[in-house]
Each structure stands twice: as C-alpha cells, then as structure tokens.
Amino acid sequence: MLEEALKKYFHYDTFRPGQREVIEAVLQEKDVIALLPTGSGKSLCYQLSGYLLNGAVVIVSPLLSLMQDQVEQMKRFGEKRVVAINSFLQGEQRERVLANLQAYRYIFVSPEMLGQKSFKRALSRVHIALIAVDEAHCISQWGFDFRPEYLNIGDTIRTFSRVPVLALTATATNRVKEDIRKYLHMENPYEWISAVDRPNICYQVVPIQKHYEKIGWLVAHVQHTTSPGIIYTQSRKKTEEYAEALRESGVRVAAYHAGIQQDERQLIQHQFIAGELDWIVATNAFGMGVHKENIRQIIHDHLPSSMGNYLQEVGRAGRDGEQSFATLLFTEEDDRITKSVSVMDYPQEFHIDEYERLANQGVNPFIMVEESRITETSYRILHYWMHKLPKIEVIEQINQMKFEKVKEVDQLQQILTGKDCIREEISRYFEQELLTKPVLCCSVCGLPEDVIPKKRLIKEASAQLFSWQERFKQIFPN
What we know:
Blueprint: H1 2-10, H2 19-27, E1 32-35, H3 42-52, E2 56-60, H4 64-76, E3 82-85, H5 91-99, E4 106-109, H6 111-114, H7 117-123, E5 128-133, H8 153-157, E6 165-169, H9 174-183, E7 190-193, E8 201-207, H10 214-224, E9 229-232, H11 236-248, E10 253-256, H12 262-274, E11 279-282, E12 297-300, H13 307-314, E13 324-330, H14 334-342, H15 349-360, H16 367-370, H17 376-386, H18 391-417, H19 422-429, H20 468-475
Parallel strand pairs: 1-6, 1-7, 2-4, 2-5, 3-4, 5-6, 8-13, 9-11, 9-12, 10-11, 12-13
Helix pairs in contact: 2-3, 12-20, 14-18
C-alpha cells in the first residue's frame, strides 16, 4: 500500500532508509521522533502521510526561506492545498488565508506565528491529523540552534484535542532527544535513529599558521580541485573577499549571506543548482532547502560553533553517495574566535536590568530592539525567560546557556583536531558505535597527499556577463 502511494504521489519506486518506518508509525497515530540525515528525505515523511491521513498536516518550520522553498516545490508537483503562514503574508491576503484555513491540506507555520491568537483561532476550526516539527533540535536549549519560541509549541499543541506529533531533525544527542520528548509532551514516542556516519565523506583538517593565510590556501586549492563545493566562513565581509579572490583566479563563484537581497539570493541558489556556479562562499545562511546531490567539497575556514552545525553543513556534500570531502582550515586562535561568536546572540546582564526597568515603567521592552540596543535574537531569548523565571534565575539560566555553548566549541575542537579518529569520535559524541571505516576516513587515520581529485576540466567563465537583476529576469521571466 505505501509503495503504491509513494509511486502515485511522488513517482518513486522505493523508500529511503527510515521513511517507511516513520510513516507507518505516523499512520498508527503514534508520536514519532525521527533522526534522519541531511538530504535523506525528511519532508516526505509528513508529505506522504498527509495524503493518507484524514485531516490537515501542520508543519512548524524555523526558516522562512526553507518554508517557502518547500511550499513552492509542492506546488510544482501539483499540490494546490498548501500554504505558508509567516511574515510574507500581509493584510488582506493573510486574513483571507486564515478565514479559509480549513481548505488546506498542508499548513506551514513559523514557531512565532504558531503562538499568535489569530492563527490559533483559525487553526481551531481545522481538523488536524498530524503536527510535524521540523528541525526539532531547536526545541532544546542544548540543541545547536536554540529557539525559545520552540518551547511554546508543546503548550500550543495541548490546546487541541490529541494530535500525533512528528519531530524531525538530522542530529540530536540523548539530552536533546529528552528535551524534544519533554517539551512536545510526547507519549511513549516511536524513535527512528539513523547512524550519523556518512561513509562517503572524508574528513580532513589542514593546519594553517596564520588566519590571513587561509585565503591563499583557498584560492590555490579551489582552482585545481573538484567541484561543486561550498566554503563556509563566519562573516559577510569574508564571503565577499574570498569570492572576489576566487573570481579573479577564474573560478565560477558567488558570495552568499543574509545581507544580500532576497531576489539575488534566489538567483545564486538557482545558478548553483543548475551548475552555472561551481562554488559558493557563504555564511551559515546558505544550505537549508538547497537540494543539490553532487556537492563534492565542503570547506570551513573556521571552527563551527557546535557538532550539530558542523554535521549539518558537511552533510550537504555527497548526497548522491559518491566520494566527497569535508575540510577544516584550522589555526590556534580559531577556538577563541568561535567561542566569542557563539555567545554573541545571548543577552548581557545589563540587558536584563534594562528589560526589568522598562517593564516596571510600563514601557514595552521591545524598544531595546527598535533602538538597536540589543539584537532581535538576544531579545527573544531574554523575553522568553523573563516571563518564565525571576530575574536572578534568568541571569543564572543565560550564564549556563553561554557555558554550554563554549563547552560545545571545546568538544568540537577536540574531536576535529585531537589525536583520535575523527569519524569514530563523531559517532561517539552521538552515543553511536562505528562498525566499519572507509578507506578514505580522516586525516588522523592517514590520507594520500592529493586525496581530493584534481579538476578534469577548468571551465571558462562566461564571455557575456550580466547583472544579477538581468539574470534573474532571464531565469524567472514572470
């Protein structure tokens, strides 16, 4: 039956590992925690279930770009009863959608929007068959992308009659899984836990003496080795610098970060997927919702802030099962820089004092964001905990969260730059046993000097260059 439905709705003959088991549990109205690797088809678990269940599927998703991408993909495959409820919907359009919410089979919503009274009123008129929480690690303060709004999802769910919950993520430790069970109020959930190991990805750490030497290494390396690939860096400025240096050396490359206009980002994604670009230099803003199976290299010029972030980014390589490479350029100062960056999104003690003072005066503390005295991310964390705990406990809570962030950086550094096999240590971090190792394992186990294949053909840059606005019109004429 399930294979017939898979063929009918998605034109696939077989399931990927874990998909069938997760869908079967959902159809039995069980709560489910599914840890499926990046690129393994997590979205199919709720999409196919939606065709087989009697009612709507509500999908809570943390990224607007990812949400929009999934909605557009489903529409391209012929599904018209799909909608995204987020900040892109304005005025009359939003009111019209909320008034007719029961007409949709798939309802994507951000965690912030899920808690709004107008949305909850509209959703109360809908017969809900399943609630899917994507990127469910965000529900845990110990997860690698903590979002305080996720902690309210479970309370919102409880306002409806009993509805099965499907929690989806690529990576989670036992501690994070326990938080997912707790905060989503799951009842004896079925768990499908995939192995975190990706045998076709070779892990390589390259020691670099000085941070400024990394750009020279990148240019020399990228010019001559296989593509396509993604270079991850921490700052918008570096994405532009690296991309410019690579472009001057003849590489088809683009910079990508959150400061670039949305239309231009869409174009860059399209060009990369279509093979018009060989490399992307990006902050971690790039990758979610980008479906490209043949990425051969992921390069980090910095130490990521957590194991979860690292695995999510390197997991974008080799989705076609072919040999791929994850390279980290590492200097001795990288851990200090990453620790500093990783705690930047947490409020300081003076922010807590200011929030309390404004609240006591009857002033909306959000004015701190409007006057650029605190980032919106920091404010969301502060606002959540100020409504949950006394001030002194808020200080303790946030200090503990910062401590855990720094600890995660230390753990990742030890795994990637220590003396033990990187692949074994990654599996051990997630309390999994590694049974076999590939020949091309990691730089600790030993790799040939030229482990990454050379380019077979250096592609010439296009003779005619267009502005991104002109190219956007060519690709998206409507």
